Amino acid sequence: MLQIVDSGGFARAAAALDTSNAAVTRQVSALEAHLGARLLNRTTRRLSLTDAGAEFCARARGILEQIAEAETIAAQGAAQPVGLLRVSAPLSFGVMRLAALLPGFRARYPQLRLDIDLSDRVVDLANEGVDVALRIAGRLDPNLIARRIAPVSMVVCAAPGYLNRHGTPSEPAELAQHETLSFSYLWAGDDWPFTDGDGKVTRVRVHPAVHATSGDLLRELAVAGGGIIMQPTFLVAKELRRGTLVPILSDYKTLVLNLYAIYLSHRHLPSKVRVFIDYLVQAIGSEPAWETQQEHVTSRT
Questions:
Q1: Distance CA 56, CA 49 (A)
Q2: How far apart are CA 176 and CA 205, in angstroms?
């Protein structure tokens, strides 16, 4: 499957694997029959992954990456990584979360120097000389080489003053009548998704009073009573604890994204990249502080 995705078709995959087109087709059909799910949409003009296929490829690629990393660790032994590590990370996450983790990393690997670019744009690792990029997304392009680090939940919230003036929405559809503040790079755009207790997904088209490329600006604007935001818990955890922002529509689940580390190749992964990613996985944990803190916040009406 991965060879088909990487090559862009059955024929090219067969050539890369030094086998026949028919053999590749049979293997994919057998895999789909085993899984009971269609992985590829096939037409005479194009080939594309189904949702199940994209998920399967992402997880399969992750397994192969872990195997490759294990091989690299064995080959490199206990060598201390040295040199310059260039990291790209989202602006708000870098300031609010990554910065606090870096002293521990530097203490563990003092011979590594860091060059960190904080930006919410999608960087080109190869052309820009970036060793590893941290990215927050719902689902990545299956062609990317990435490792999932931690979940990043989103929360819909507003200041008590705003809710006192305008009322607290009890249904997602009511957001259309409220002042909303939207992050320009939000993975869902202005169609905010909500999942009820029965698993039904509703997408609400909001009409933001403000779009901004800075989540920090939107958070401060919301604290000042400017409207309702959908932002990651790591960005608003302090305000939620203090009560300057309160969650709304808490009976619904909204976006759950992931923090990924993206790098160029799982083959011969440089030790400086491996130790950085391993450190983040260990330091952040499977239940990040920004997620567990959110569990103790209850909605207010």
A1: 10
A2: 7
Decide if 126 contacts 264 (C-beta within 8 A). Answer: yes
CA distance 190 to 206: 6
3-state secondary structure string across 201-217: EEEEECCCCEEECCHHH
Say what angle helices 99-108 and 271-284 make with each other, to 10 degrees: 130
Burial class (CB in 10 A: 0-12, 13-18, 19+), 279: middle
What are 171-213's pLDDT values in tens digits?
A: 999 998 899 999 988 877 788 889 988 888 889 899 899 999 8
Longest dimension (CA), the chain: 68
What's the helix, strand, coil split of the chain in %, to 5? 45, 25, 35
DSSP 149-165: EEEEEEEEEE-HHHHHH
64-70's contacts with Cβ under 8 Å and 24+ in sequence apart are 64/2, 64/266, 65/145, 65/147, 65/266, 68/266, 68/267, 68/269, 69/266, 69/269, 69/274
- Per-residue pLDDT of 61-118, as tens digits, reads 878 777 766 665 565 555 678 889 999 999 999 998 999 999 999 999 999 999 999 9
- The pLDDT tens digits of the residues spanning 262-272 come to 998 766 778 89
Structure tokens, 93: 């996450």
